[in-house]
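for the recovery benchmark. C-alpha cells below, seq after
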C-alpha cells in the first residue's frame, strides 16, 4: 500500500524516551503523535498543498530486514480504513494494520545526526539495525 502523496521518506523506529500528546477525542486512535510531529505534518500539508479529501495515512507493509516497515504519507480514504483525528490532523489507518500500530507514537527529529519521522512501537519485538523495519 503506497500513499498517493508520499512526502516523508525518513522514517525510523524511535528510542523509548519519545513523548507524545494527544487531543481529547483521539483516544480510540491506534497511534499518538508528538507536538513536533504534528507541527511538521501540518507544515508539509501546507507547503505541498495536500488536496481536500486527503489525510495522513499511517500503516505497515511487508518488507525490510525485520519483516515489516512503516507507511507514512497522504492518501484518499480506502475501503478498509478507519478515520481518526490526531493532534488536529485527519489520519487514515487500514483496520488490518491497527493491531500492529496500537500504542505507537509518531515523533519528528530535526538534529545534526538525524532528521525525520520516528515510530515508537510497543508491539515491535525486534527492529533492524537501521531502525526502518520491525517484527511484531
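predicted aa per position
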Amino acid at each position: 500500500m503506497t500513499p498517493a502523496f508520499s512526502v516523508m521518506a525518513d522514517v525510523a523506529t524511535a528510542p523509548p524516551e519519545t513523548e507524545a500528546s494527544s487531543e481529547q477525542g483521539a483516544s480510540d486512535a491506534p497511534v499518538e503523535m508528538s507536538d513536533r510531529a504534528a507541527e511538521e505534518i501540518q507544515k508539509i500539508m501546507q507547503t505541498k498543498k495536500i488536496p481536500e479529501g486527503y489525510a495522513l495515512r499511517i500503516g505497515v507493509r511487508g518488507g525490510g530486514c525485520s519483516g515489516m516497515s512503516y507507511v507514512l504519507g497522504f492518501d484518499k480514504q480506502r475501503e478498509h480504513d478507519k478515520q481518526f483525528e490526531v493532534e488536529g490532523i485527519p489520519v487514515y489507518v487500514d483496520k488490518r494494520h491497527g493491531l500492529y500500530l496500537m500504542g505507537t507514537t509518531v515523533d519528528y527529529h530535526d538534529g545534526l545526526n538525524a532528521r525525520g519521522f520516528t515510530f515508537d512501537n510497543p508491539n515491535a519485538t525486534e527492529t533492524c539495525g537501521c531502525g526502518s523495519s520491525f517484527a511484531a
